[in-house]
Each structure stands twice: as C-alpha cells, then as structure tokens.
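task queued by scheduler; priority normal; single chain, no ligands, no partner chains; default sampling; output format set to structure tokens
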Amino acid sequence: MDGRTNGTRRGVISDWGGVLTPPLAEGIRAWLHADRIDVEHYYEVMRPYFDGSLADANPVHALERGEVDTREFERAIAALLRSTHGGPVVAEGLIHRMFSNFDPVHAMYEALRGARLGGAGTALLSNSWGNGYPREHFESTFDAVVISGEVGMRKPEHRIYLHTCDLLGLRPEDCVFIDDLEHNVRTAEELGMTGILHTDVAQTQRALDRFLEPDGDGAPPAADRRGRAAA
C-alpha cells in the first residue's frame, strides 16, 4: 500500500465515533443503562435533534460548533431525560459519562497508521459534543486533527471537509473519507472525495487498500446498487 498513486499524494480522512470506536448505539446504550436512564424515553426526546425537524435552531448543532457551553447543554438534556429509579438525572459530567464506553478500535488506528507510513496524509474529522478524545493515539496516527467545536464548523457542512483537505494540502479528489453515517459520506462525495461508509474494520480496510493501491488510479471501488463505493 502506497500513499502515492501515479505521482499524486493521497489523503485519508476519518471520523472518530463509530469508526475509531465501537458503534455509536452500543456506547450510548451502555451509558443509559449505567446511569439508569429510560432508554425508550431517551430516544423519543432526542429524536427531533437528529431527524432534521429543528433545522438551524438545533442545540446539538450549536454544541458541535462550540457555540453552546457544555455544562449548559448537559443541564438542558438532563432536564429532558427520565431515570428508571425515580430520581433526577445528574447533569454534571453527563457528556463525560455518555462517551465513557467509546473505547479505541485499535485495528482501525493501525489501518490508518499503515496508510500514513505508506505516504498518505491522514486526518481526523469529528463532530464533538465537548467530550474528551484519546489524544494519546492521535500523534502517531494523524497529520491533522479537526474537532468541530474547536473550528466552529460541523459535518456535514462543506466548509469543514474543505478545511480538512486544506490542512493536508490536498484536493478533495485526492482524498478518501471514512464515516459511519451515510449523510456525512454523501457530502464528502459531493465534494469529489471517495466515500467509505464504515460498517466494520475488514470492509473498510479493503476499500482503503483499493484507494491507495500503487498501480491503481485512485478511483473508488466498484459502486454498489446505492451508488456508494463498496466497502
């Protein structure tokens, strides 16, 4: 695997949650059970934040851009949730607890390090809720780290993808973007990137190898029936 194809340097841009960690739903459910929060009620009250119905007034989007104080957001969310023990949901430290089960998937880190060692530029592009990251793994893995709340932009806004490409000194056409959410991958493809919709490490590794193939042209893998580059 070589990060240069026909003289063109390649870039690999990866999401964090759900790609470099186990699936998002697993981590969230582990937190809900540990905090004794009503699971079905959680999904009911949180649905408007993710189904597009709040549009530009979405506080989650504001949090991801760093426009809302984390503690303020924690208090607002805790007030909406319902415990299974009859007491209040503790607001302080809620986001830390929410992300406490997002352990590193070391095989994905190794895949990205392999791409970097092969000459590809690597970047993390993550929407943050003000949560902590395992930054001890970042220096050996990434040339650039883009956290939404630190740059005032969020996925799937075009500008944060272009900002990440600029940090790598590459065009979108020379980059592959890995994410577990289809709408984030779709936006990357609209900008000219090769999209990999992450479902598991083995499939993502195969798609990444194809993108970085030294004798290839950097074209995406054969599209599946949805038009998505097959992982």
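post-processing summary
- The chain has a mean pLDDT of 90.
- The longest strand covers residues 121-126.
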